[in-house]
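User: My instructor asked us to take a sequence, write out its structure as tokens, and then describe one feature of it. I'm not sure where to start. Here is the sequence I was given:
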Amino acid sequence: MQASQLGVFFDQVSIGLSQSNAEVRRLFHGRGKCWPGLEQLTCDWAANQLLVNLFKPVDETFMVALTQGLEDLSNSELWQQVQGKSIVLQHRYSDGAPTEVLLGELDKRPVVSELGCKYQLDIGRNQNFGLFLDIRNGREWVKDRAAGKRVLNLFAYTCGFSVAAIEGGAEHVVNVDMARASLNKGRDNHRLNDHDTSKVTFMAHDIFKSWGKIKKHGPYDIIIIDPPSFQKGSFALTKDYKKILRRLPELLNKQGEVMACVNSPSVTPSFLIDSMKEEAPTLAYIERLANPSEFADKDDDASLKVLLFR
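Assistant: Let's start with the prediction itself. The structure tokens for your sequence are:
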């Protein structure tokens, strides 16, 4: 990380802020390696709060320049125009990802909007705040296609896809995730949007031990698979993803669609395409959804892969 490149960071953040609306949004994505010397730095805008993330330790020169630049931003006319409330720095490389409030008072549980939907974030307690911003286009795809359909949302986390689906008129959504606490947050997200939660099922189960229960709620018109790259004791990408794909034919309607996602830089789209041919040959690859422009990556294959099958 190079302090001499921080001018680029602040230029990009300022451009993002000047173009911002009320929606939650990534303003700077150094992790895509498009900005040399800033690869371990990101910045998000959420409920008038600037959330800066460091993914590796930096030297004192870099830290002083970063904090001084953020202070200068907070005193700018632009900051007043966007009604900025606070600036926080999260050290994602440290245990517990400690959060440092640099300016103002942090609202740890703000409600943000995206594509007409509301979500409650949880900032500062975990590495992730409850909504993955890079898969916004996937949520938009689901929302646009969900009307009258039954949707299965595997590895549901806080149910972002489910909220988008119900907002788009889905008949019913089944969310499956081992973490009951995440599903409870998903239920709260639905309530934030005044959704009829009788149209939503929350299953706090191990997917691999619950196929019978999952199948009982089908068949499904849309299946979403968005697993972690690795979760100790429960999911290993290259080994376990295929176990899911081979179940798809018995879960999916004949004209059904599958959104299969993978966010490991070590896995290319061909892994999913080839694995689908092997495990569920009746499903044909349609296309890869583009990631939001602010998540540009020097190596497209290393970025988030969102593939559609029918």
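For the description part of your assignment, you could build on this observation: The mean pLDDT is 94. Try explaining in your own words what that tells you about the chain.
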